[in-house]
Design brief:
It is built from 15 helices and 20 strands. It has 533 residues and is α/β, with parallel strands linked by helices. α1 (16-27) links the parallel β1 and β2.
Length: 533
């Protein structure tokens, strides 16, 4: 490959976001080049997909005629097409409340559990992405498409005028890239923010958390431990381990994601104000000390061993970061480069895909001058609105961790917004199918203003209701001794009322006892979801 390339778009970072963006732009008739300072395969987090993530991936693969990408959108098609590519079965979200120094005690009314299904069965289920293999697969598709790809490349000089000039070295040889536009998909690398001096501030985020994590073998299934303690796992709408499994603690939570190669991704995310980082303690010691306070979780990990692929326990400082601006006249950042929040509810990959969809929609139309500036300003404004909404959602959940009833009620904002958005996208696919048009001739050139915001962030009423309830849940959770039973029930009723216009999945129903099977009206009705009020 020549080390001098002229391209329409230079993409910095070959994680799943950068690689997928390169493939889409190439199919749209543009000339992308993909650049990364490292190589694949490599360890990465951000492993759990959701229905909205899979729907966007599926729709993009169809619109841009990428038939090898489409099977990755569902567990069933993934297993049939790429059984050699590691993933995990994700039927939904499961949450279990734990108290310090007490074993988990299942309750007949499931009041210390929450399970929300995201699919009808295994075939249409979501997946956990084993990122070392998933990202490497997408890079392989980039290579196969003939897209210029420079790995192990350090960009040392950046000149931004009417067009970009990127210079660096790869394996000791000089590299020169000219491009009209740059997309930063470098994530924590923050390539453009550092070189353009874009202001960043964690102070703009209300959520304040850090993580201790690793990849393990030998992790017991939580359902087996529940059953041994008399838990009514037969009531669950899906296997609680085949999910994004959340263990909820006071001011912290743990993710447990199982892959079909025997590896489990697990990590504890802690309120960084309550659990300040002590760099003198090894991460493995902090991990084990925390687990020892929660006997049932410690039992689940009693035989767990860190995997060689991970190498050792890892730890972060405060995770949250956010740029003041995510796009300029000839550049833009993908969402997971523009900010970092928290893994709670698995929003990251879906949000990144939403940003990819928008950005490709802008660039493939080839707007110029003022119109390009307007579209990029719109991209940035919507992204900032979404980040604020997600931050309020996660911050409110952290405040409620110690009072599970409040957490369950407030988390319904995520599930109501997500299921409504999912059903709207399913209706779009169904409408295209009913029209008789080929599925790969959908609204590829839809104006940016026509594309939906992530998690209903473009709906002022939804944002206002979420923000108000976030303030209320923080106040209730902060009361001495916790919120009274009547106040907790009142809050649940308030949330149910605020979500009535978008609650199409039967959420907030006390008769469900925190166990929600999959529900989406478009599956049963050709009329699709009701309009939002």
């Amino acid at each position: 490959m020549t080390n001098s390339v002229t391209a329409d778009v230079a993409i910095i970072g070959s994680g799943f976001g950068g690689s997928l963006t390169a493939l889409l732009l190439s199919r749209a008739g543009l000339r992308p080049v993909l650049i990364d300072r490292a190589a694949h395969p490599r360890f990465a987090l951000g492993e759990s997909s959701t229905p909205i993530a899979d729907l966007i991936l599926q729709q993009l693969a169809r619109r841009y005629d990428l038939p090898r990408i489409a099977p990755l959108a569902e567990y069933g098609t993934w297993q049939r097409s790429y059984p050699q590519l590691t993933c995990g079965l994700k039927r939904g979200f499961s949450y279990f409340q734990h108290r310090p120094d007490q074993p988990f005690t299942p309750r007949g009314d499931h009041a210390n559990e929450l399970l929300v299904a995201a699919s009808v069965g295994d075939a249409d289920a979501d997946t956990h992405w084993f990122r070392a293999e998933f990202d490497a697969f997408l890079v392989g598709e980039v290579r196969a498409a003939g897209i210029p790809y420079f790995d192990l490349t350090e960009i040392c000089e950046v000149v931004d005028a009417e067009s970009w000039r990127l210079s660096g070295r790869r394996s000791g040889e000089p590299v020169h890239i000219a491009a009209n536009f740059v997309i930063d998909a470098s994530g924590e690398g923050r390539f453009l923010a550092q070189r353009l001096g874009v202001p960043e501030s964690a102070a703009a985020m209300r959520t304040c958390s850090r993580a201790v994590y690793g990849h393990f073998t030998g992790v017991r299934r939580w359902a087996d431990l529940l059953a041994a303690r008399g838990g009514r796992i037969q009531d669950h709408p899906f296997g609680c381990d085949d999910a994004a499994l959340h263990h909820i603690f006071d001011h912290a939570w743990m993710w447990v994601l199982r892959f079909n190669n025997g590896v489990t991704s697990a990590g504890i995310q802690l309120d960084a104000a309550r659990f300040p980082l002590d760099e003198s303690r090894p991460p493995a010691d902090e991990w084990q000390t925390f687990l020892n306070r929660y006997p049932s979780v410690a039992e689940q990990f009693a035989s767990a061993q860190i995997t060689p692929a991970c190498g050792q326990m890892r730890r972060t400082g405060r995770i949250q970061r956010r740029v003041a601006r995510a796009a300029g006249c000839n550049w833009a950042m993908l969402p997971l480069t523009a900010y970092a929040l928290d893994a709670l509810h698995s929003t990251g990959n879906a949000h990144n895909l939403c940003g990819i969809e928008r950005l490709v929609s802008i660039l493939e139309r080839r707007p110029g001058g003022d119109e390009l500036a307007r579209q990029l300003n719109r991209y940035d404004a919507m992204l900032q609105t979404e980040i604020t909404l997600l931050d309020e959602l996660v911050h409110g959940c952290y405040a409620a961790f110690g009072q599970f009833e409040l957490l369950v009620a407030f988390a319904m904002f995520y599930f109501a917004g997500a299921t409504f958005s999912e059903c709207a996208r399913r209706e779009e696919t169904a409408r295209t199918s009913r029209s008789g048009r080929p599925l790969n001739t959908g609204p590829r050139t839809a104006a940016l203003d026509e594309l939906p915001a992530f998690l209903l962030a473009d709906r002022a009423t939804f944002r206002e209701h979420l923000s108000d309830c976030a303030q209320r849940v923080v106040a209730l959770a902060g009361q001495p001794g916790g919120a009274a039973p009547g106040a907790r029930e009142g809050f649940r009723e308030l949330v149910a009322g605020r979500l009535a216009a978008v609650n199409i999945a039967g959420l907030c129903d006390p008769g469900r006892h925190n166990l929600y099977p999959f529900s989406c009206p478009i599956v049963a009705s050709p009329d699709g979801p009701p309009p939002i009020i």
